Structures are given as C-alpha cells and as structure tokens.
Amino acid sequence: MLDWPKLRGAITKGEVLMPWDDGYAASLKRWSSAAEMKSAVIVRPTSAEEVSVAVKYAVANKLPFAVCGGGHSTSGMSSSEGMVIHLGNMRKVEVDQAKMTVSFDGGCLWSDVDSALDAYGLATVGGTVNHTGVGGLILGGGHGWLTAKYGLTIDNLISAQIVTADGSILEASELHNPDLFWTIRGAGAQIGVVTRFTSRVYKQGKVWSGTLTFLPIKLPELVAFANEFHNRGQREGHCLTIVVGYTPDGASRVLSAIPLYHGPEWEAKQYFANLLSIGCITNYTSMMNIAQVNQLQNPMCEYGMRRLQGSGNVMMPLHTTAFQQIADTIWSFHNMYPDVKFCSLLVEIFPTHKLREVSQDATAYANRGEFYDAVTTFGWTNPALDSAVRLCNSKLCAQIRRDNGYEWSRRADSRDKPVGRYLNMEAELVIPRQAYGWNLEKLQMTKRKFDPENIFRKWHGVAEEMGEIE
C-alpha cells in the first residue's frame, strides 16, 4: 500500500493530485487525446527540490513514472499509469540582456519564452509551433526557424539544472558535469528531469514570412523552386517550408509554402520572386516578429483531437515524380477516411550548414546531416481509425525515406555519418543504434553513471541493444 499522505506532506508548495481531486482531469490532457492515460497520481511540483521528492518516491516504491512538460509528444511518452511529474506549475522565464541569455523553467511552453524575449527585441532557437513544451524539443535536439542561422536548440544551450535518478539536483554545463551536459543534448529524456534551461539569445528584428497556398497542379513548380532554393547554398538564415495537405475545413486539396527572409519586405520579394511567380491562391505574407512566425503552423496543430506525427528526411534535389506520389498517398488516404481532419506532410528546408559546423560526436544528438526533416501530421477524433492512421503514417514515412531520403547503416564507413532520424518526431520505437549511431557507447557509459537502474527508460531507450542492424 502506497503512503500517499507521506508524498503530500513532502510536496509543500506544489500539488499531489489523485483521481478524485480537482485539477486531476485537466492534468491528464495532452496535445493528442490518443496519448492520454489515467494515472495513479499526478505531482505538479514548483521547484527542482519537489521534483527530487517525486522521483525518489517513485523509485523507492517501484512506481513507473513519466515527465510531462508541454505534453506534445504523440508517442505517449509524457503519460503513465503510475506517476506523472507534471511541470506545468514551473513556467518562470528570466531574460539577461547584459549576458544575452534566457533562463526558463522546464514546464515552459515556447510561447512563454518567445513573448519574454520579444519584449526586448531578442530571440532564441525554439519550436515552430509555440504551444510545444521546451523540454521535449530541446532534449531531443531541437529544430526551429532560426536553426539555419544559429544551429539547433542544444547548440545554444549553455547550462541546465537536472534531477537525476537518485534525486540529485545537478548543474550540467561545459564546466560542471560535462558528461551529463553532453548526454542531455540529444538524449536528455533518458537521463533525468531537466527543471531549468539557460540558452543564448540574439538580437532579432522583424522578418518577412507568412503562408502562401497553391492549387495541387502547382506541385512541379513548387518542387522546382524548393530545389532552386537549396542550390543557392545561402548562409543568411532564410528558410522555406512546403506543405502537402488540405484546406482548414478538410474539403480541398492544397499545397502551401511558408518562406522566411531576414530583411525588409522589398528584398524578400526579390529573393522569393520565383516562388511568388508560381501563382498562389492566397498570400498572407507580411513583416512579423519571430514570435508570430512560431504561430503560423498553430492552426493545423489544434488541441482537442487524436494526433500522430511521424518523421522522415529528404535529400535534395526533390524528384517531382516521387514527391507527387507522396502527395497522392496523403490525398488518397484522406479520400478513404474523410473523418481524418488533418493529414499533411511538411518539408522543412532549413539550411543545415550551421548545425553541421558542430561535430557528430560533440553532443549525444547524432543527426547532423545535409538533409531536411519531413514531418507527417494527422488529426482525427474516432478511436476506430487509430490503426488505419498509424499504418498510413508508417507506410508514408517509409515511402519518403525510400524515394528521397537518407538511411544510416551500422556498417556506415564513418563515425561522422548522421543517423538520418529526428527522434523528436519519430512515431515508432527506434532501436538504440539507429537512434544514436556511434554515439551510443558513450551514451551508455553516462547512463550507467547517472541512471544505473534504467529508471528513465521511456521511448527510445539507450540501455540495451534491441536487435542488430543488417
């Protein structure tokens, strides 16, 4: 019998919620209702010390647990039938203009960080959907609209406060526990609960961005422009996302493009002249700040439904025939299952030279390659469609990798080769070697040091090889 009063007594400022308590049901909510799970207890701490209490209690009582930041994962990683350590009461943000840094709690959403920085004309590399939690994005690597200019979120991380498996509260940085700091940058969820991050910030003016929509017949021209954009080899941080999907009401097939240009509107329109000349249905571009850019994809990422995301990657150039087949797969699936409201593919053409300046073994993140992320997104309400959606997603991601993607093999002739998988978006379990490549051995050493009992083992584990790579 678990001693819940003892836990309540130890969490003096936070909350310990049982199924009959006010706030319990709200704390179960996730971005994907398919990832929700009833928990024995939910702890909503207010400090690293209370997180430590929760971790110690769960470990001592052999209670499985999960950590919830923004609750955006569609894998179910932030839910548990045992304990959930919900960081939603820890959302403090502090901006230091003199040091050009921002410190923020592990329960923050990117909207918290964006708004705090925007007030000072500053920005950092964050998520492309602003209601994503900071922790999940950062600890898995972290791509964003500013990656092309400043690298990954982990490349801008200066330090972190982390609660490890024995309840210790440690600082991780280049100077303090550098092996732990190496690990959290790419495999953080496997080593502890990060309660505080400190990252570099940059002066950031307005950019030209927004959404353009096109008829499906424009696909060859859009692919041609994407290839041209890539071939420019620019290093100024300009970006492009192309989307295959439907109009918001789900009634019509549509293609979209979201360009981003660091500079005035007249320059942007010259730079993206060939994109604009394709001929769009709608044009909602304007000058805006980065905080607004990080809201552009929010309409297709609403709460209140079952969600699934998947990941692939594309090597350039894109091939029109292959890309058309991928688009047809998406549109045909929607025709077959019209109750699936959201069914789309995003290709994030964020130039990679900056993230590739960091060596493959400098952090646990092992995916620094010259290719772009391709992200699938589904949204539906009927649980009876779960299997059909997951099957379609699996086939679609395999199709993307087969026709235009990069694949890593254990027989890779160089330890500098990327794995070709962005784990933050993976909908299916990835075995350790495929997830972390040649960084796995060092990662396992750190795991044995800080989490010898494999307490943090949800999702893409590192403790054991789960099969051999052919």
TrEMBL record:
Pfam family, one: FAD_binding_4
Domain of life: Eukaryota
Cofactor: FAD
Keywords from the named record: FAD, Flavoprotein, Oxidoreductase
FAD-binding PCMH-type domain residues: 35-204
InterPro entries (alphabetical): BBE, FAD-bd_PCMH, FAD-bd_PCMH-like_sf, FAD-bd_PCMH_sub1, FAD-bd_PCMH_sub2, FAD-linked_Oxidoreductase, Oxid_FAD_bind_N
Single GO MF annotation: FAD binding
Family: Belongs to the oxygen-dependent FAD-linked oxidoreductase family.
Name of this protein: FAD-binding PCMH-type domain-containing protein
Species whose genome carries this gene: Penicillium coprophilum
